[in-house]
Amino acid sequence: MTPLDHSAAVAAETAHFVTAVQQADPALPVPSCPGWSLADLVRHAGSVQRWFTVLLRQRIQEPPRSRDVDLQLPERPEEYPAWLAEAAEQAASTFAQTDLDAPMWAWGADQHARFWVRRMLFETLVHRADAELALGLAPEIEPTLAADGVDEFLTNLPFAAFFAPKTAELRGDDRTIRFSRTDGDGTWLVRLRPDGLGLVPDDGDTTADATVQATAADLLLLLYRRLDRSAASVTLSGDEELLALWFANSAF
User: Quick one: 112 and 14 in the same domain?
Assistant: First the structure.
């Protein structure tokens, strides 16, 4: 997979997000985030960026004991887009001053500072897509970026149970699901074991028990439940019970 500049991508995705929402009604509902308005969505995205930025500045080596952050949130929701843009600027400054290969606590697989940059990227990208869907727009996601997002999701899913408890139900007797992109090279083989799940090397010779096929962008949106598995652009095959187990428990 082509290496990506995650720091630059955070800035680009935030800029797309801001462009989408800056003239929109903050009260507009966001169907992909039930109960949220655009204002809620932008506030969440900016809060996450500021929180992750604080973690990076502190270079924490253990789970944080507090989530208190000075959000500097404006009083008027109409000002939230500019506030989100400021969050990205603060993040970019922190990225530039941080050794992203330095060891650091993270909840996922990669125990380095770079984990938080990559996580911030896909938090921002998915919520940018939420905003565009709410506005009746079709999200466009660059395929290489989308494929990296699929990899990031599936790599970290085994570690997500503490905030997404249903993922603990993803167990099986060495059952496998292959996720395959149709717009380029790229497959991900997930194995469900009695003690949990994880990505395993995919040499292409393994016959998976179930397969999910779509473009990289649609795979990413599917994994994050922004695209329904019944969509015409998604092809499912193999063990239906295994696929049902997956889709019932893999959201985070």
Answer: yes
Domain check: are 109 and 31 in the same one?
A: yes
Looking up residue 194, the CATH number of its domain turns out to be: 3.30.1050.10
| 124 and 169 inside one domain | no
pLDDT, mean of each 10-residue run, the chain (252 residues): 82 98 98 98 98 96 89 97 98 98 98 98 98 98 98 98 96 97 97 97 92 98 98 98 98 92
Q: Which contacts (CB < 8 Å, 24+ apart) does range 241-244 have?
A: 242/172, 242/175, 242/177, 242/192, 242/209, 242/210, 243/177, 243/210, 243/212
Q: How many residues are there in the chain? A: 252
Which one of 72, 106, 140 terminates a domain?
A: 140
Looking at the whole model, is its pTM more than 0.90? yes
